Amino acid sequence: MKIEIWSDVMCPFCYIGKRRFEAALQQSGHQGEIEVEWKSFQLNPYMKTDPSININQYLAEAKGWTLDYARQMNDHVTQMAAEVGLTYNFDKSVVANSFNAHRFSHLAKKHGLGDKAEEALFNAYFTNGLNIDDQDTLIKLGTAIGLDAAEIKQVLDTDAYADDVKNDINEAQQLGIRGVPFFVLNNKYGISGAQAVPVFLETIEKSFSEWQLENNKPSLTIIEGDTCSPDGDCG
């Protein structure tokens, strides 16, 4: 069964949602039978990368808040993150456009490393204060999870996977997804936001049960002959 997750690297609730989803998936016991695919979404596609300021400063300026208020808002999210074992350092988080990070994720997905790439990017942005729009940073993150440095550089030097990122975003729009994280299970059920573990678990189990029924139907080898159909056609 497939579960698709639309997410943005700079979304604090996406990392929290990832942890809660992972806990639910582990409790379900179906990890080996579920494929998780990460999809791209940009909360602010027009954001300009600026390593000279952190996200608290950016929010204060962009929204007209005081710096103290911006920190208070992010402190609340930091506490939520701590509850699932994550360390957020917003004072270190570099303001960066996430488009190249999404292209990097698509390269990783091609090699079966999509989940590891997402984890590395989240950790780099929220915990370690790294610039996720910087080529050298992405190369280091990529080689650490098993990607080839030359291939990463080749991708980042071109527009490779740009269409894949845009296609993900367009698909999200078609599905009516307006915020992330957003989870689509078996192409049937959608979960919006970093929901509690029991919500994820209940939906995973429901979706998986239905998927099993759909895929365990007996397969018949049919020898064709003269038949009558419900609409009255015989022949």
From TrEMBL:
Domain DSBA-like thioredoxin: 3-204
InterPro entries tied to this protein: DSBA-like_thioredoxin_dom (IPR001853), Thioredoxin-like_sf (IPR036249)
One Pfam family this sequence matches: DSBA
Signal peptide: none
UniProt protein name: DsbA family oxidoreductase
Organism lineage: Bacteria, Pseudomonadati, Bacteroidota, Sphingobacteriia, Sphingobacteriales
